[in-house]
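=== Structure Prediction Worksheet ===
Name of assembly: unnamed complex
Input type: mixed (protein and possibly other molecules)
Chain count: two
Listed entries:
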Amino acid sequence: MKRRFRKLVDQHRHRIYTFAYYHLGNREEAEDVSQEVLMRMWKNWEEVEPATLPAWITRVTRNACIDALRKRTRYQAMVIPEEDCEASVRSAADRGGQETVLDAIDIRERLEKALSALEEPYRAIVILREIQGMTYEEISEVLDIPLGTIKVYLHRGRRKLRRRLVEGTV
Amino acid sequence: MSQSDQHDNSCEWALERLEAHLDGELPADEAQAIEVHLKSCHLCAQEWALAGQVKKALGSLPQKTCPDRVLEAVLEGIAEDAGTARRPAGLWPARLRWGILRPATIATALIVVLALTVFISRQGRLPVLPDEKTEEMEEISPEAVAIAKEEVKWTFAYIGDIGRRAGLAVRDDAIYPHVVTPVQHAVDEAIYPRVVAPVQHAVKEAFDGRKPDRRSR
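=== Predicted Assembly ===
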């Protein structure tokens, strides 16, 4: 039993930590969340169908991240406003002729910050799709959101990231 | 014509489909129309370049490595969890006799005793390491040592878990009903009539004997 569980831990722990790191934007909280998820895995792994275990782990990790965010006082500022969900992309003309091509050197750092400030569920979808390479179907199953909506949210999430990087609001 | 004048409805149309085009999800005719538009519109072309850059940067963000201290904390948590875990009440009847003691309890206890015996017996037969490094020693990589250490930790955590469970089972099913409770009864039966009751009686008599004295005063 120990060996089987250990094998599972080795298979999933880096993935759990990577998701938590980009979701929360800091190492300490990502470690706490990873520990919590692995403990939950220890308590439940025998009851979860092996085929659904990766989806279960991702769901538990995301929920643990959201719980961690709730503990932060600034969480309220991150809650997604309804009207913002429906807002269309602002036209490029609004930004005038400002330079939009970003400095490749600092883009990664700014992107990490922008990502960890993105509202849910955009944040989870962008991480799962763009960083962890999950398919739309897998993301749809994990987050229990229709496939078409996942695509719309992904595009919207990337667009929001772009706006924030360009406008320097990160 | 200024750039903002150029940014008309066709720009809105193109920008709405930019992400889908980036992911290669647009029908061929729409993708072609966007490509044509991008060649003629500087602002949309700039937006397109930026979208590509962000997508590429997202894809290049590294997978993170979960630190080993997280694993160690999990191991400690598992050991702690096993230590505080209790069997649900009533799962095993407390009226078990020695003769029908649960086979699982006996088996678990035997495994623990066996494991401890093997462990103790090997203590005296540990190979003595030579002072200088040999070729064999040089073959052991740091990774192998780390894996071996990790394995030892897991093994001890697991043995500890079994030990605790076996200890609890033996205590609840064997020691309490067959040792502690009978001894308590025997002690009660032996001491109460011969010691406690006479002492209580003597104290009562002495107390009662003083009462008339107090009244007489």
